[in-house]
Every structure is written in C-alpha cells, then in structure tokens.
Specification:
Blueprint lengths: L15 H10 L26 H14 L32 E2 L2 H12 L4 E3 L3 H10 L4 E2 L1 E2 L9 E4 L14 E3 L15 E3 L3 E2 L1 H5 L2 H4 L8 H6 L4 E4 L4 H16 L6 E4 L3 E2 L16 H8 L1 H10 L7 E2 L2 H23 L18 H22 L3 H28 L4 H22 L4 H11 L22 H23 L8 E6 L6 H5 L1 H7 L2 E7 L8 E6 L2 E6 L6 H26 L2 H6 L2 H28 L1
Parallel strand pairs: 2-10, 9-10, 11-12, 13-14
Antiparallel strand pairs: 1-3, 4-8, 5-6, 5-7, 13-16, 15-16
The structure holds zinc ion.
The site of zinc ion has 8 residues, from loops.
Amino acid sequence: MEFGTGCVKVTPAHDPNDFIMGESHGLDFINIMHPDATLNENAPESYHGLSREEARKAILSDLEEQGFLEKTEDYLHKVGYSERGNVPIEYYLSDQWFVKMKDLASPAIEAVKSGKITFHPDHWTKTYDHWMENIKDWCISRQLIWGHRIPVWYCRGEDKDRYQMECSEPVVSIAQPQACSVCGSKDMVQDPDVLDTWASSWLWPFGVHDWPNDSDELKKFYPTNVLVTGPDIIFFWVARMIMAGQEFCGDIPFSDVYFTSILRDEKGQKFSKSLGNSPDPFDLFEKYGTDAVRFGIMLMAPQGLDVLFSEYRLEVGRNFMNKLWNAARFVQMNMKDGELPLDEIDTESLDLPERWILFRLNQTIDQFERRMDKFHFNEASKTLYEFTWSDYCDWYVEIAKTRFQSGDEAKAEAARAVAVKVLKNILKLLHAYAPFITEELWASFKSHDEPDLIVSSWPSKTELTEKMDEIASMEILKEVISAVRTIRSRMNVPPASKANVLVRSPNGSAGVLKEYESIVKSLAKVEDMTLGESIKKPDHSATAVIRQMEIFVPLEGLIDLDIERARLTKRQTELDGFIIQIQKKLSNDNFLSRAPEDVVQNEKEKLADMEAELERINSNLEMLS
Ligand SMILES: [Zn+2]
C-alpha cells in the first residue's frame, strides 16, 4: 500500500461526504462536539471539555503510551479556513433552517425559458437553467451577529436550558408572542440565528417599496425593468429574486438582466480587497476625472467578456473628455454677442457640411439606439466616441471655424446653430456615460425653458431630405483634405507654409472641390487650387490618388529641396545600417534561443517599423528626384 493505513474512518456528524454516506447506509450520527468545538459527553470521558487541538494531542499520546502507535508521517493536505476567524473549519452537526427550493424554482425556470425575463448576454441562461434544474434546498440560518433575526420563538417551559426543552413548540412570529400556545408559559425566547444575507436580499425588489403593504410605491416600481449586476451573483441573488418575486408578489421582479463585465488585473486575477490588486477608484477619479474613468471603462468592456484593466484606457477616456470640453468651449466663444442661436433650423437652406453633420448625427442616434436596445453599452460608447471625436470635433468644428472667420454672417449664423444643435445632442447621448461634464456643459447651452440635462428629452433626429450624394461629396472633400495634410506632414512642410494643389480629374468629377474650394483651402492650408482634365504633373511634386482624381502638390518653393534630399539621404543610410544589424541579430540562433521572448518580439517590431520608414523615405526621395 502506497498511501494510508487501509482503514477509512466515517464520521457522518463531522464531514459532508460522510454525512451523505451515513444517510444512505443508515449509520449513527454521533456528534462529539459542543457548539464551541470542545468535546462533549459522546467522547471518552478523559477528553471531555478539551478543545479539538488539545484532544488530538491527548489521543496521540494515549495511543503511544499504550503501545498502539505504529508510526507517524507528515502529510500535506487541504483544510478549509474561516475567512473571518482565520481558524480551520470544523464540520459539526447542527439544526439549521432550510428553504425547500424545488417548487420555487419551477416558475423561475419558466420565466426565463418563456422569454418573460431576458439575460444579456444570453449565454448566462444556460448556466442559470443548469443550476435551477439541479437546485438544492437552501440553508438560510447563520450564526452571526449581524442580520435579520430568524422570526421563530421557542417556549422554554420550566426548563431554562434551550437545548433541553420540555415544551419544544416553535412559534413563527415577527413580534414576541405573549405566551406559548401549548403550555401557556410566558418564557419565550427567539432563535439566536440570523438570516443568510441573501435571504434578506432576495426580497430587495419589493422589500424596499413598503412591501407587504399594497402601496402606490410598490405598484409603481414593481415589477421594474432592468437589473444590472455581476454574473458572479447570478445564483446568490438574481435567481433568488426571481423566485421570491413570483412567490411573494405573483410576478417577475424585472424583465431584463444585464450582466456586467468583471474587471481583472493584467494577470487575469479578479480585483479583490484581500489580494490588494485593485486600484482605489478614488485615486483614479483624482488622476483622470470621474467621467473619464467611467467612459474609459465602458470603452474597454465588451458585453459578456471579462476585461483586463489598463490605465491606458482611462487616458483615452480623459483625452476624449478634454476634446469634448475644448470643442464646446470653442463653440461657446464664437456665439454672437454670447447669445445662443435659435433651435429651429431651416435645413433646406443649409450648405453641404451642415447638412452632412446633421445627417451623421441622425445616423449616430439610430446606431446608438440600436446598440442600447441590445444592451451593447460598449459598442454604443464607441459609436459616440467616433462621431464626437472625428465627425464633430475634427471635421465639423474645424469647418465651422472657417465659417466664423469668413465674414459671411449668414453662413456663420447657420454654422453656430448647427454646431450647438449637434453638441447638445452629443451631450444627451453621452450623459449616462459622463454625467458630470455633460451636465456642466449643458448649462452653457440650454435655453431658458429647457430643464437640466438629466431630465431633458431624449435626442430626436433632424428632418432632412435625404440626399445620399451629399454624403458622398462630403466624404470626397474629407479624403482630399486628408491626402494633402498627409503629404504636408510626410514632406516636412512647415505648418505656416501654404501649398498649391493641382487636381487632374475626368470631366466634372471634381466639381465638389470647386464648390467647396474655400473649405479645402482653409483646412488643408492651400494657397491655389487648379482643377482640370489635362493637367500635367509638375516636377518635384508629391502625389495622391483619391477616387478618380490625381492630386499633385508641387514641392518646389514649399520646402528646400536640397536640404530635404540631404536629410532623407542621411536617414536612409542610417536606416540601412540599423536594419542590417537587427537582421543579423534575428538570424543568430544563439540570440534567438537565449533572449526572452518579449525581447525577440521587440526586435522584430523595431525591424518592421524601420522597414516601413525606409520605404516611405525611398518614395519621398523619388518625388524629389
Ligand atoms: Zn410551551
């Protein structure tokens, strides 16, 4: 025999597995302990009153003394510890209160199966079904100080020791009963146990609304619609609220349950107080701002997946809040005489960029609502992020800036009205994610008769005659402006220098550029723009192709060609040298086998970056040749 003695002790009163075995084999359940874990009269007399630790030592020394001890061996095993007392847990046979669950579970299973209650994400339905269909009776009594006291009273009759009652009649009552209904004794004592915390919490959906009184409050708020909680308490809480609601109120407590993602640290461990791996949210609020933390976390938490927490995402949140704040301040600074524009906008009279941003706002509201309806909060936050950052701040506000500075008062006024309208709708959509910043900004843009943002109406779409070609035109403008900006930055053009642009395009296809020349000129810092079917590519010019248009930016006069050529050639030589070095390293088996994986990975990334830069430099040099 490799392990053990070949004998197995079975103690049904002191081990959960032995308990089951004892029940199925009709064994005696001998409890050898007092409630304080000292040994009782069922143990041999010399051990009475000893603690379990003392008793074990005494037994060992008795065995040795009487010559029964063959040998002792050290053996590592697992013992459950009490988190509160930090002592080994001793199993002990005791009377507890149980709730019979089978009958409660059936309607709760049905409520989810029939779709009356929907889980988001729905894969939790399977977990729920499995547990509910194999449900065990629920032990609801706890031997703790805090909690709702069990509403059961015992008659002590003449005997003052609770454990040896003569009249053992228990009475269920919230208030102390006057007298025992069997023997008439007035000596009634309440069960010292309290309810399991979840046996209080499962009453929560109606318990907080004046239940069991049939109050107006209860009628208004029960049942409610959405429960938001963590999937780790799907059984402790969610399933039990569904059971309690149907049992006590005859109806489901809520129609939808949204299970949040669980944040974990970068090693994948759940944040916990005892591990000490959780950042203090208040420190994060202090560092990034409360709204930035909320929004950053929503951006990184896809529905149904756990999230590895990273502070980088909070930076993204903070940058977004700054971007919104600055855009709003800019718009506010450009109000005429500090007055808000009128809410009513004649959309038919608007110009392309204004119609485009209102159209994009409509699309964003649609997409945002669709995602919200599916409880896809993370995707909804991305929709909002992209629209606000790119369409509104990067494009529309920049265009509005050219309007404000144009001297054309009608256009400036239309831009003000549209900029404010779109911004107010962004604030409404964003409010649940960033309540503080949005409410603060709202105060600067709301009209006198509008309420605070938190109670304002949900965004409504602007009525627009749909002209899809307008959207396409605006996309062309954006692409051309981006192309010229890219060329400027690639060729190291000083920000203050204005470029000339030539566009070769088939007949008529560049009409939108002609029409909105002023926008292109202002956003891409262009001096002259020439359009035509038969334009020749000027010497030393950078090119880009957008749709059917070829765009040329002559570099002569814009940058010093000789200096730029020299700079690029120098960098080309440097890169050639670096690349050879890294390639050598990466083909060295010795390095590959010894270096840590992340070091090798780092070298590979460096190589890829340098090769990409070299490619850019080669093509830049070609343009200059
Ligand atoms: Zn009695």
